[in-house]
Task: structure prediction
Amino acid sequence: MDQALSQLRKRYGSVPLLRPVLPMADFSPVNGKRRAEVAMAIRRPTDAFLLQTKAFYPPATFRIPTGGIKKDEDVDHALLREVHEESNLTVEIERAIAVIDHTMPDGRAVFRTYLFLLRETGGLLKVNDPKERISGWSERDIAGLRSAISQLRALEGSWQHWGSFRAVPLGVLVDALG
Result:
């Protein structure tokens, strides 16, 4: 077992390692610039979850916020840094939901997502890093999360594989919430 997963399990207890297969062998989830990310399932005081869209996404496309983990950065540190950069919210980490190793059809893991359930405890929703190009937010209940999954999976053309990839953490979240 790798060190990052072992540390998460020491801090948060049982954290499943999932290995979904990416939709095609030549798909690069994030242009090869990074090998891992944190995914932030931020529960608002209304109990709805925060999804985001970016200026260059297809219309009405929302996904769970994610952010890269810097070389030699601790996963928890990356999580809280990314929450601040993307949302400006203060949060409490409720639990690590899963570690998702996205794999190629041949079984090779090529990208990792650390999915966390967070509870908003304060702050004003705003983007602190304009390079993120976040252009909108949506609060969704479970039915709304399912709708976002369907929307991502229905993307076509050059967005098809990206949509399938981005639907995975939302699906894992919905399953974990029951």
